[in-house]
Every structure is written in structure tokens, then in C-alpha cells.
Amino acid sequence: MTAAHGVTSQHSSNADASRAPQGTTSTYDDGLSAFMSVRPRLFGIAYRMLRSAAEAEDIVQEAWVRWQTADRSLVRDAAAFLVTTTTRLAINVLQSAHSRREIDVGPLMPEPVDTSADPRLGAERGQALGLAVRLLLERLTPTERAAFILREAFDYPYREIANVLRLQEANARQVVTRARHHVATGRTIAA
Predict the structure, then answer these.
(1) What is the DSSP string of 93-145?
(2) 65 in a domain, yes or no?
(3) Has residue 154 been placed in a domain?
(4) Rounded Cα–Cα distance for residues 86 and 79 (Å)
(5) Are 38 and 68 in the same domain?
């Protein structure tokens, strides 16, 4: 799909090169390079929130589509736009799953195994850690989960978390604090 868009855009750009100002032929390439430079981070955010590689990939693809349809001349920071879009899309999926009362029984992110030690013990530790993290994150609402992951896993400042979640900075701090408290106390969410 992107190759077809790239060929079409490049072909039409070449055909209209005499009418277009210099520098506009690389607009598509700039969009692609900006997206590809943050794609691993986008996947990491979606994967940590949704705990499913397939769903995370779907979210990243939807973020790509939205990036392609956005007026990038109005976007001041491509990375911030893409992270915000990805986070909001993941929150939408989580809220939709919660409203349908779906329960995720899939494994969490696989942990790297220490190959110098006994591989069986490393795999067991990884599986236990994955289950523990999954159980902890299930105790958070989608907004709390997003704020918690952005802060703890990606070390985002509260101001950026507030922008992504459309909150005031003080509210973002409170959401992260509540998420930490809910993880520590073992709160359960009513189904």
C-alpha cells in the first residue's frame, strides 16, 4: 500500500515538478523518515498498553494512515504527533475492550532470556515476571495505564503526558500517582 502511494506521489510530483516550488517533492519522504524514526517507540507504547503484538501493529498502521492524511505543514513536532496519535488509539482499543468486558488471556511481552544461565530457569523467570506485570497493569484504567507506561517505561515528562492525554500537567501527575498506588495496593477494576 505504501509503495503504491510512494510511486503515485513521486510520479505526480515529477510530472508537476515544473509547477511545484523546489523542496515539495521530498515532502512524502520527510513524512516517511519521520514516521520510521519513531516507529519502534510507537510499537513499544502500543504493545505495552495492549499486550498484543498484532493489536500493537494494527495501532501503528492506523497511526501511519493518520500521519499520511494529516496536514503535516501544521504539525510542529512529528514525534509528538505520532506518539499522541498512537497513545489515543491504544486507549480507544482498551476502552472498547473494557466496555465489551473482554479479558486478555494472552502473554505479555516476552522477556529476554539469559543464555549464560540455565535457559529453562530464565524462561520460567521471564514467564513469571510477564504474568506479574500483566496482572499489575490490569488493575489500571486505560488512562492510568497510558500515563503509567509513558512515565515509567519511557520516562516522559508530566507535561508531555498531559498533552498526550489532554489533561492539565497537575492532573497527569495525579493520574500517574494514582496508577502507582493502584499497582502497589492491588486494586481490582470492577468488570
Answers:
(1) HHHHHHHTT----S--PPPPP-TTS-HHHHHHHHHHHHHHHHHHHTTS-HHHH
(2) yes
(3) yes
(4) 10
(5) yes
- pLDDT number for residue 115: 40
Poorest-pLDDT segment among 14-18, 31-35, 181-185: 14-18
Q: How many residues does the chain have?
A: 191
Q: Is residue 15 in a domain?
A: no
Whichever domain contains 148, its CATH number is 1.10.10
Q: Residues 89, 172: one domain?
A: no
Distance CA 78, CA 3 (A): 21
What total of structural domains would you count in the chain? Answer: 2
The pTM of the full predicted model, rounded to 2 decimals, is: 0.55
For residue 63, what are the contacts with CB-CB under 8 A and spacing of at least 6?
Answer: 42, 82, 85, 86, 89
User: pLDDT over 90 for what percent of the chain?
Assistant: 39
- Residue 160 to residue 169: CA distance in whole angstroms: 8
Mean predicted confidence (pLDDT) in 25-40:
76
Residue 112 lies inside a defined structural domain of this protein: no
The stretches of the chain forming alpha helices (DSSP H) are 2-15, 27-50, 53-69, 78-99, 119-137, 142-152, 158-165, 169-185
Half-sphere exposure at residue 187, Cβ-oriented, CA atoms within 13 angstroms? 14
What domain range is 76 assigned to? Answer: 1-6+27-106
